[in-house]
Every structure is written in C-alpha cells, then in structure tokens.
Write a structure and sequence with these properties.
The chain is α/β, with parallel strands linked by helices and 343 residues long. The chain has three domains: 44 residues, 434 Repressor (Amino-terminal Domain) (Orthogonal Bundle); 131 residues, Rossmann fold; 132 residues, 3-Layer(aba) Sandwich (Rossmann fold), CATH 3.40.50. Helices cover 45% and strands 16% of the residues. The chain has 13 helices and twelve strands. A six-stranded parallel β-sheet has the order 2-1-3-4-5-11. The chain has a six-stranded mixed β-sheet with strand order 7-6-8-9-10-12, sandwiched between helices. Strand 8, helix 11 and strand 9 form a beta-alpha-beta unit. Helix 1 crosses helix 2, helix 6 packs parallel to helix 7 and helix 10 packs across helix 11.
Length: 343
Amino acid sequence: MKNRRITLKDLAKDLNLSASTISRALDNHPAISDATKKKVQRKAEELGFIPNSIASSFRTKKTKSIGIIVPRIDIHFHSLVISGIEDFAYKNGYNVTIFQSKDSLKREKEIAKILQNRMVDGIIICLSIETEKCDHFKKFDKLGVPMVFYDRVPTDFDANKIVINDFESAFTATEHLIKKGCKRIGHIAGSQKTDIFKARLEGFKAALQKYKLPINQDLILYTKHLGYEEGVICAKKYLEFSELPDGVFCANDYTAVSVIQIFRKHGIRIPQDVAIVGFSNYPISKIIEPNLTTINDCAFQMGESSAKLLIRHIEDKDEFINSESITLRTNLIVRESTQLSDA
C-alpha cells in the first residue's frame, strides 16, 4: 500500500465495514454512530487516507472551486483584488485557480475554453484591454456556471458586475485640482477602447466644464497600457510646451509617478508649479516624493464583493440573478503632490 493511494475499499477491508459506511462516517453522517466515526477516522489517519475530492464533487455536484481570469497579476490593483477574492473564498471553503490573460483577447478566449472543460463552480473575470465582444463567455450561462465581472466589464450582454464609478472618481480628482487653484489642467488617459478609461476622461472633462475652464485637447495625452514608460513619454511631451499645465490628472498612479520624477529632474516643483493627482492608491504613491494624491479604488473590497456575489449565486440557485450590478464608493486621498506643506 506504500506505493499507491489508500482507497475507501482499503479502509473497508481493514475495518470489515462496507465502503458506503466508511464514506458516511468520514462525512460525519448522522446515521453513523460516534464510535464508528472515531474508529474510521483513526484508521484513515493511520493508513494516510486522503479523500478523493473529484469523486466527492461528482456526488455533491460541486467542486468548491472558483476560476479567476485577470489581465496581469503583477499589477497591484489585480493582486489586491485576488487577495480579496481568496480571503473570502477560503473562509467559505472554496479554492481558487488564477489565470492571466496578459491583456490578450486570444489568450482570454483560450482560458475560457480551458475553464469550460474544468470542473469549476463559478468564474470571476476582469476583461483584457483588447476585449470588445464577450461571446466566448456566453457559453457559461448555457452551462449554468455563474460569472462575476469586475472593473472591466462587458457591455454586450447582461452580467453580474462589481465596479467603481470611474466618472465620479475622475470628476472628484479633477475638481480637487481646480479647488487648489489649477486652471490649465492636463490628463494622461488610458486606452479609449476600454470603458473605465473613457469614463475617467469624461469625468475629467465634466469637472472642467462645471467650473467653466477650457478643455485643451493638446493637454490630453493618450496611452495604451498606462505603463511607467508611457508616463515618461507624456511628461516629456508636456515639457515641450511653451506653457506647462499647472495641474495633471493621471488615469493611474504609474503615469503620475513618471510625471513627478521627470518634472522634478527638470527643476519643476510639485505641487508649487504643477499639482499631480493619480488613480488607484498603489504602494508607490506613498513612497514617491512628494507623496502622491490619488483615488483609492477599493481593490481588496472589490475582490471580496466579487467572491461574495459569486458564492451566493453558486450556493443559492433559486435566487440566481443574471445581471446584478454593485458599484463601490471610492475616496480621494490627499497627499503632498497637491498639498503645500505647512513648513
């Protein structure tokens, strides 16, 4: 027996009990006496018996397993979301398997096919930056597998969603710059193929319009991935202007950090000459000097909420709602990049 897995039949033979009795005893079935349960448990531990989770899942029709598709786990936002999902899932007896699309639609479709063939009870998804149509996820509805989308969510079919109000958050960030006295405000935008970055741009514009400030299209710079290097390129473009912006709202913290570093290398004071606001509250926002004012995007809470919604749909099929949407509130964290020190 040392070189193979111990089975229920092995335990049954050793204890002179039926395999069904052994199974019930291990499952703490009320029909089995406490004495028998203890005897079976002792023998299982002695022989090193490990329950077959696959066989169990066939009996219960549940695997207690959740699939997660994220664009990139090396982005702090998604790491925090995953942490929130995993914490809630673990407390409720679920395991998680994580897949990265690497922001590739092709890879996302391949992962969806893999998950169709795997025994998962539900899926949590953040769409890749290339994804515009979500036909590859519609099959899960037909299979009866619940899905929850977070942050980047589908618009071409009804789905469970956990999001923040990107428009309102961007409005708040821009309004903060205006109230600090900024009048010539720039924006480093994300890909306009993605709804969340479209909303952030629209929120930026709406704040300018409310306070009757001009929307200078030259001061709106676009990126593909909002990476650090793209932020460097944008900062250098601003330096080419005859007149710098006096405030910049960046669609994420990486680009905001780039702007701070490049501007400071050129002797531009932050926030005295240019005030900077980011988005996401990445750890680097507290490390960069000056510390970065930013929007807290509630990433961990988004993960918890996604897992909570998904597990409720998995466990309570009678209350299954195909398109439940939850919007989390964000908040502005004011730091040195917009706040003059008292010194």
